[in-house]
Amino acid sequence: MATMPTAKSAKKAPRTQRKSRLDWQAIGAQLDTHGYAVVGPLLSARQCTDLRRAFSQERLYRKHIIMEQHGYGRGEYKYFAYPLPAVVEQLRSTLYPQLAEVANRWSHSLGKEMSYPSDHATFRRRCHDAGQKRPTPLVLRYGPGDFNCLHQDVYGQHVFPLQVAILLSEPEQDFTGGEFVLTEQRPRMQSRVEVVPLGAGQGVIFPVRERPVLGTKGYYRVNMRHGVSRLHRGERFTLGIIFHDAM
Questions:
Q1: Would the pTM of this model clear 0.85, i.e. be above it?
Q2: CATH topology of domain 18-242
Q3: Which of 37, 66, 95, 96 could be disulfide-bonded to 27 (CB atoms 3.0-4.6 Å)?
Q4: ∠ at Cα 232 (223, 151), nearest 5°?
């Protein structure tokens, strides 16, 4: 039986996991320019292995989704229950403050009144006060032939505009195919596609549903969706860090 990282072991995570070790100025610039940013590694090889093995520990999760039953694609995923595993909670709380700065800048650029607090605990209370009390961090598993249709992870009234996907498997070694894909639907233009390569432990930060783009007449919004292409061989696991909770 796999053992999930404890609060003590989470403190021993790779230094790159800590927000002080990430170049947030460069990350913000990449998000503004390209709509996504690759970061990390955020997890060590041991942490990736622990999270993959823990997929079978039902006590850690509140819900199990078979994607084909809902028309989401093929594969499966499980939402964690509260309390979250220490390493997942740590990622959620330490990545949020810097991402909140980007979120507030984007909100202002798009002329929205919504603002985001500087710490995740306060934002989570906002979600819970609105009835969004179910945790949304999840682990996804894909086997040969599996894929994830393009989608957005919107679970209620309060939506944090950025999320993080962390690859838990090693490309070419553990699986082939299964590329992370982003699409950008631009006004009066054809959609643009990005394929984002990741290594085990690396994460990609990307919009939940939209982002601002600077045009000749100021900022305009573009709609974003994400998914995973068909897996050819092996097994692929991903940890998803979503900052808003669900109804």
A1: yes
A2: Jelly Rolls (2.60.120)
A3: 37
A4: 20
Sheet-wide strand order for 236-242? 37-39, 203-207, 162-167, 236-242, 138-142, 76-80, 61-66
Q: How far apart are CA 174 and CA 200, in angstroms?
A: 10
pLDDT, tens only, 47-94? 999 999 999 999 999 999 999 999 999 999 999 999 999 999 999 999
- Nearest CA to 32 out of 147, 188, 173, 162 is that of 162
* Among 168, 145, 176, 144, CA closest to 85: 168
DSSP strands (E only) in the chain: 37-39, 61-66, 73-74, 76-80, 138-142, 147-151, 162-167, 175-177, 180-185, 192-196, 203-207, 210-215, 218-228, 231-234, 236-242
d(CA 226, CA 240): 12
